[in-house]
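Incident log, support desk, overnight shift.

02:14 A customer reports that sequence design results differ from what the structure should imply. Their input is reproduced verbatim below. On-call engineer (initials T.W.) acknowledged and began investigating.
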């Protein structure tokens, strides 16, 4: 067999392997879309609760000194999960005008406490959207 036949046979085997569909995944093995990232109790959206979560005290991040010195103002919008015990779970950044503002907000949320959301008379975990502005006064 010449080298051209060997190359042709190799390409035919390779193409056949690439063209064949992958083995089907059994339904029991598929990851469920309903499984949450933290595998904990369900987290409700703001419109699914009877009473939304609210901070026990104003959330006041520390103004980054380097941005204050430069006269830079900004804002951060984030979504956080307030757990049923009032502590902050995970968070997602929606918008930030500067990375230093993001860090300041993240640090302030570490110790923030909330009155948790209520649904059917029980405290539940829920998403909350926070808009924090940094203004020079």
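02:41 Re-run completed on a clean worker. Output:
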């Amino acid at each position: 067999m010449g080298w051209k036949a060997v190359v042709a046979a190799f390409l035919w085997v390779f193409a056949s392997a690439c063209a064949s569909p992958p083995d089907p995944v059994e339904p029991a093995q598929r990851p469920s879309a309903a499984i949450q990232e933290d595998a904990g109790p369900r987290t409700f959206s703001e419109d699914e609760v009877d009473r939304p979560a609210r901070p026990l005290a104003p959330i006041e991040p520390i103004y980054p000194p380097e941005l204050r010195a430069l006269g830079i103002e900004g804002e951060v919008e984030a979504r956080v999960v307030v757990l049923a015990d009032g502590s902050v779970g995970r968070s997602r950044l929606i918008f930030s005008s500067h990375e230093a503002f993001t860090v300041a907000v993240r640090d302030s949320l570490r110790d923030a406490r909330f009155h948790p959301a209520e649904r059917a008379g029980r405290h539940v975990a829920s998403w909350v959207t926070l808009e924090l502005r940094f203004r020079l006064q």
